[in-house]
Amino acid sequence: MVSAGNTSHYRHYIAEGFRWYKSKNLWMLQGWILLYLLGNFANGFDGALVNGLQPDKEWQTYFNHPVGSTLGLLGAIQNIGSLGSIPVAPIWNDYFGRRKTVMLGGAMMLTGAALQASAKNVNWFIGGRCLLGFGGGFNNNADPLMVIELCFPSHRAPIAGSYNSIVNIGSVVAAAATFGTYYMSGQWSWRLPLLIQVIPTSIQWCLIMFGPESPRWLMGKGKEQEALRVLAKYHGNGDEHDPLVLYEFEEIKNAIIAEREQKRYGWIHLFNSPGMRRRSFTMMALAVCGQWSGNSMVSYYLNQVLTTVGLTDKPSQLGINVGLSIWNFLCGFIAGFNADKFGRRPIFLTSIVGMLITFICVTICSAQYVEAHSVVAGKLTVLFIFLFTGFYAIGWASVLLLYVTEIVPFSLRSKAHSLFAITQASMQVFNQYVNPIAFLAIGWKYYIVFDCFIVIIGVFVYFCIPETKGHTLEETALMFDGEDAVAQLQKQAEEQASRA
């Protein structure tokens, strides 16, 4: 599939010499978008908690040294809770709007985090994590959609491409928190990081309703004047007659009118046309690819991997966890921020080639350490784990979420994102539950499974993933329907904007 329509067509409507940082309203917009990025920060913090708490002797003693299926459940229960919210979250999101969805999800996340921090036993702890995951499902449905629907057009790819990398900032803070509290005596060594977890969600929850709603959602609800005011204030410095604002407004309106005529609203419409079937298959396949690339082995069970190669010192494991999170953030952020410069497809392919080479090296070095007791091989394993996670972050912690949200029309975007999320969460649950069991049974040989799957991922991306850079959100959403659909939308918006 080729890129459809004229790429970067919207840039013709941006005044020559325009510099966004000279606009006070665009600075305000970046602040509101930052609130939605905090949602992914919270995800990263929680995702790193189980990994960071495992070396803590107080946590291990309090919960009777969980191993095997119990440890797998502790890692997977958040995603199990998230699975429960997926059928409900897009309905709430489409009916009540992005902001109120974040408010509801945040309230449940704060309650779940409080239960988790006050846990008296392992079942209490699991229950708190389950509720936290359920609320997180609402936030995860609304946060990325708000980012891509609210951003200034030329900022959408860099900011949304960097969205997933914010997970790693949360991971860094969680890893640093668990590293610092490791030396504390008593239960506060593990309860304090759980309390710190509520800070980003609390900030988001308190401020979100003071910010703007998605102009796409407002337009979809027939509130055209409100949508125009939001676009004008944040994309046109308050001028409702700004050429870019008029072009965006007309393009959004035309796209939504076309979707209404096709009556594409229900879950079944994700599969009722060739274009939507291709979108849905692409999103589901990418969700599976991201979870079966080997990263789950080093992101949730890093301490077990390090133990396999002889690094059993707990402070060293925690220190490596912090360094790994920082490295992942840098790789993911740089790749995502340059999504429009390099293109989504080249970033994906670079990531996959690097992942394959480095994970094969992890497999070989782990085998050499276990079979030949080579200390050098053990140290090299840690090096290649760092390199592997960096390559993973380049593709799957950067442009993945941008890609799967931008290829779907507005009327089905929330449900399509849930389809992606339910596929992703299902794979995460499977990985988090099965990985410790399989790893305990066959050790380093389990890595070979992921080596083979990375090859399959590469073949899929090379032949099935088209490039999408250089378009507005509405244009990108039509690309799977063909080049003519995008060109027609551009022409309609241009003609109507010129008459306004």
From TrEMBL:
Coiled coil feature spans: none
GO MF terms, alphabetically ordered: carbohydrate:proton symporter activity
Record family assignment: Belongs to the major facilitator superfamily. Sugar transporter (TC 2.A.1.1) family.
Catalysed reactions, semicolon-separated: myo-inositol(out) + H(+)(out) = myo-inositol(in) + H(+)(in)
UniProt xrefs under PANTHER family: MAJOR FACILITATOR SUPERFAMILY (MFS) PROFILE DOMAIN-CONTAINING PROTEIN, PLASTIDIC GLUCOSE TRANSPORTER 4
Main location: membrane
UniProt domain Major facilitator superfamily (MFS) profile: residue ranges: 32-469
Gene3D superfamilies registered for this protein in UniProt: MFS general substrate transporter like domains
Secreted found in the keyword field: no
Gene Ontology CC annotation, any one: membrane
Compartment annotation: Membrane
Domain of life: Eukaryota
Annotated keywords: Membrane, Transmembrane, Transmembrane helix, Transport
PROSITE patterns documented for this protein: MFS, SUGAR_TRANSPORT_1
Name of the protein in its database record: Hexose transporter
Regions that span the bilayer: 322-340, 347-370, 382-404, 446-465
Keyword Repeat assigned: no
Topology class, membrane: Multi-pass membrane protein
Organism: Dacryopinax primogenitus (strain DJM 731)
